[in-house]
Amino acid sequence: MADITLEAFETEVCNFLDANAQKKEAEKKFVWGEGSDKVAMFEEKNRDDELADVKKACAWRTAKFDAGFGWITGPKAYGGRELSSAYERLYNTVENRYQVANQGVFTIGLGMVAPTILAHGSEAAKDLYLHQMYRGDLVGCQLFSEPGAGSDLASLQTKAERDGDEWVITGQKVWTTGAHYSDLGEIIARTNPDLPKHKGLTGFIVDMRAPGVEVRPLRQMTGGANFNEVFFSEVRVRDDHRLGDVNNGWNVALTTLMNERATIGAGGGGGGVNLYARVIEMVKFYGLDSDPIVRNELANLIIHQKVAGFNNQRAMDKIKAGQLPGPEMSIAKLAGTLNSRRLGDFVSKVLGPKLIADSGEWGTYAWHQLILGTPGGRIAGGSDEVMRNIVGERVLGLPKDAGIDSVSPFRDLKVGTQKS
Questions:
Q1: Which domains can be identified in the chain, with CATH numbers?
Q2: Are the C-beta atoms of 139 and 178 separated by less than 8 Å?
Q3: pLDDT, tens digit (0-9, with 9 covering 90-100), for 366-418
Q4: Which of 339, 124, 157, 150 is closest to 227 using CA atoms?
Q5: Residue 32, H or E segment
Q6: Which strand (E) or helix (H) includes residue 406?
């Protein structure tokens, strides 16, 4: 039973926000040619500006946590308030009316890593990290993919070898968002190559500032460097930083991946811009709103977007009812990236050459950031092909892919030839 009513909680929230943030101005109706024309799948900033934003985000997170709003649903033992998700939804609704520092830096740490630590971490790890992560004292990243193990995560080769009360980790990870500003990371490593590839894995929490950790930026075709490759050279990790049982890392990874797919599926790129309203106005601006083919394609685009929204709502309703979402998360991720591709294809048809030449004309070349970033979204969190396999096998009950070898020891497999 909550020790505070929703009405009293709302008053508490409003008092905090009124004292610490400015209210947003009323949202203006979008008008073609006015304001910024920036649209992007990923936010592109130089590293100095990015670090400055991280500092602002952490400061707001700290203020929010100290006021009792940093982990509304979390256990009191780790700084939470143990209130229901209704209170968290209420806080988010009210905070959305105010101008606060962008909290995207915590998407991975609090949306994926912290829930995994809560579910699988040792008491020592939970005591050490959860309070600090939700307070904004520590930022987390996810260290899963490798050059030879992207969608086929179970083929990873980064190894962890036991040395008394410690583990020694050696290997390489890739496509790690935010590794350059993160304090800790969740890593999956191979601890027993004599077991089948899904069974010889173990999860750990690793200090991103530890000796032997090297972070290198990866330049994308958008021009930005949101992602990194990370090298581990005999990095030592205490055993109380292990996640779950030894060689049970696949289940640990699944916990994180389901949260990741929910996060990706809920988003749509565009940096908060209402892309569909913008596309409708673009069609009108170029006099194509009476073209039956364009109108049909635009309607198809919006219908897919609406259906994806209903699917996401179904998942949220399950959570509100105290249930765990099922296939909605994988479907949400797949639908989200497919809709981004449909959107890019439609914009490309409407703009034609205007998309690829920076003429300075408003609302044209700016779309290239979204279109060039879309392939990254189709890979992150499991490729479209992997998502289709998951939906086919786990939702529709189709037989598993015959190419999966779940019996042979990993050391006997030809890495790179196995299907996920």
A1: 140-249 (2.40.110.10), 271-382 (1.20.140.10)
A2: yes
A3: 999 889 888 887 877 678 888 888 788 878 889 887 767 778 898 988 664 44
A4: 150
A5: none
A6: none
218, two tokens:
């990866």
What does pLDDT average to over the chain? 89
DSSP string, 201-233: EEEEEEETTSTTEEEEEE--TTS---EEEEEEE
Phi, psi of 147 (to 5 degrees): -55, -35
Question: What whole-number distance in Å separates Cα of residue 230 and Cα of residue 179?
Answer: 8
**Which run of H or E residues covers position 245?**
none
Vertex 352: Cα angle to 351 and 354 (nearest 5): 65
Q: Which one-letter amino acid corresponds to residue 300?
A: N
Q: Hey, is 309 helix, strand or coil?
A: helix
Dig out the tokens for 396 from the structure: 């529709």
Q: pLDDT per residue over 291-302, tens digit each?
A: 999 999 999 999
Specify the pTM. Answer: 0.84
**Encoded tokens for 171:** 């290997």
Two tokens, residue 114: 């912290």
At residue 268, the pLDDT reads 44
Q: What is the pLDDT of residue 221?
A: 79
Given a contact cutoff of 8 angstroms between Cβ atoms, the answer to whether 339 and 308 are in contact is: yes
The residue type at 179: A
Task: Specify the DSSP element, H or E, that contains 31.
Answer: none
236, 186 Cβ separation under 8 angstroms: no
Distance CA 286, CA 349 (A): 12
